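One such shown below:

_____
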Amino acid sequence: MAGDRLLVTGPDGLRSLAMSDGEQTAVERAFEGWPENEAPTRVLVSGGALFLAFADGTVLSAHVP
């Protein structure tokens, strides 16, 4: 969870859903550098930043959608 949103990750990207009604608040997308067909193994949200770690050692960061 990030504030009033639920972040859902999978091998094809990330979705942000409103906790109040489940409405999708960000389009599903994979970030540049996202390993093909890989879901993150760890997700960390700190402040307005999102960090995604993958099994191959890739770590991506972005603003929380």
The beta strands are 5-10, 13-18, 24-29, 42-46, 49-53, 59-63. The first strand starts at residue 5 and ends at 10. The two ends are 12 Å apart (CA to CA). The mean pLDDT is 88.
